[in-house]
Amino acid sequence: MTARALVPWPDLSVPAELGAVVWDGRGAPPDGLAEVEFYVLPYDAGAEPLKLFPRLPSLRAVQTLSAGYDHLLPLLPDGVRLASGRGLHDLSVAEHTLALLLASQRLFPRWFTQQRIGAWDRVHTPSLADSRVLLLGYGSIGRAIERYLLAGEAEVIPVAGTARPGVHGIAELPELLPAADIVVLVLPDTPQTRGLLGAAELAALPDSALVVNVGRGTAVDTAALTAEVAAGRLRAALDVTDPEPLPPDHPLWTLDGAIITPHIAGGSDSFYPRAKRLTERQLSRFASGVELENLVR
Amino acid sequence: MTARALVPWPDLSVPAELGAVVWDGRGAPPDGLAEVEFYVLPYDAGAEPLKLFPRLPSLRAVQTLSAGYDHLLPLLPDGVRLASGRGLHDLSVAEHTLALLLASQRLFPRWFTQQRIGAWDRVHTPSLADSRVLLLGYGSIGRAIERYLLAGEAEVIPVAGTARPGVHGIAELPELLPAADIVVLVLPDTPQTRGLLGAAELAALPDSALVVNVGRGTAVDTAALTAEVAAGRLRAALDVTDPEPLPPDHPLWTLDGAIITPHIAGGSDSFYPRAKRLTERQLSRFASGVELENLVR
């Protein structure tokens, strides 16, 4: 009897010592559950995968492909290890951040409007290069965004909750905002981040500054930002809003200086190759008795 | 009597040995032309700046801020050196290339359409990460594009006129096209590049491949590309077309899978800081008798 891994994709490289059982979370679970020691939870497959734990008597480790895992802790049997999907969505979010930022700097709303009427009218545009970018949030997504910004020869000023060498603290915002061309927010929703960019902070930004939010909408005062964009003083490129969804009749939708996408930064094809590579690394580690990556318990 | 430099901007750092005379190409030229030894041609200022050569008896070197310089050669007095603006537009073009590519991968036409009606409808999108990008043209702009693509964890396959270590030759295109997710063209208009992507080459690309052109429109067969995009088989993101401007009634304008901008990749704010830095370096070299950068004669 071999140890088995329950995995969501058939096209994985699985160590010879482990037998793979494939289940994508849809339909009836496969045979051979009694021998499953390593369970890779199907992604975005609802509640069914979580109901399998009581049927896995040999289970020793679980891999989730989400960054969050709090909901799993009460369900896992004692002694079963858990590894998270931390980092799998980073590049997707970073990529969309650049898409929002560049579409705004290079005037894409203008080009799309011209395209609808077949107009070839050229204007000079702002650019990212040489811009000073305040990067609020400097975890793994922030660093992925920074790599893109540096390739584009922007100046990056990283800001985190507390200052550390090379990284400014959030307390320094009042001095940093007046010199920023672009502010990128990639912050979670916490009591500390809620309302971080309010009317006073937005007023401290120079004319024509761009606010890009890909973290959580609550970090920005939506009414204050709407007023600044409506006045033509600031520009905004948002994947997240507060409230969310943004109501259909909200004035922000139709403002010239605003680009809005419906919270889709993390949901792109870049996820699957990364999820598969992490899964393969973890299966290999598990098979050879090496500690898992992203271990959270 | 000090040697003088005639420069287009007042806010330059000029070596103490050189006296600066400022003229942006508009209005009457300033006094002191007889002592001008180094002339930085105003950019995009029409023909007036070129008429000044006969009035500069001390002239020893000219700096143009354009990449092209053929039109200057017949006008320059014998013995006057000429340096080009090669590279000053590279990053602007690279940045717009990424903007086109990311806007296409991340479905920005869909978001702009939804934005006009206030619709918050989410869909999963393609991404750049892990995509295989054929980069046709591997000069300084191509390498600037490559730095961006590598920051986004794409796989870059550089292709130049002739193969060299690490770079494929154009003759290998038939084998390279079927495996490309994205083709980026940054090629000049030459007899060799004209019609490079014709109906057969486009047909060799896999379904859903994206063609990004920021070089010259003539490298792609517009009718063949339009047919592929109209059929929903390929996608296109074009800053250049053939003919150019694209006629208002051309079918490409309104196709779902096409993004079109009116040849504006090189015209952004990233030019001026670079032009000023090059000018300052050249003034410093000139003042200390060091050979100029970008010397073309």
From TrEMBL, chains A, B:
UniProt feature coiled coil, ranges: none
Keyword annotations of the record: NAD, Oxidoreductase
InterPro entries membership: D-isomer_DH_NAD-bd (IPR006140), NAD(P)-bd_dom_sf (IPR036291)
D-isomer specific 2-hydroxyacid dehydrogenase NAD-binding domain span: 98-265
CDD domains recorded: 2-Hacid_dh_7
Pfam families, A to Z: 2-Hacid_dh_C
Keyword Oxidoreductase tagged: yes
Listed PANTHER family: 2-HACID_DH_C DOMAIN-CONTAINING PROTEIN, D-ISOMER SPECIFIC 2-HYDROXYACID DEHYDROGENASE NAD-BINDING DOMAIN-CONTAINING PROTEIN
Name of this chain's protein: 2-hydroxyacid dehydrogenase
Taxonomic classification: Bacteria, Bacillati, Actinomycetota, Actinomycetes, Pseudonocardiales
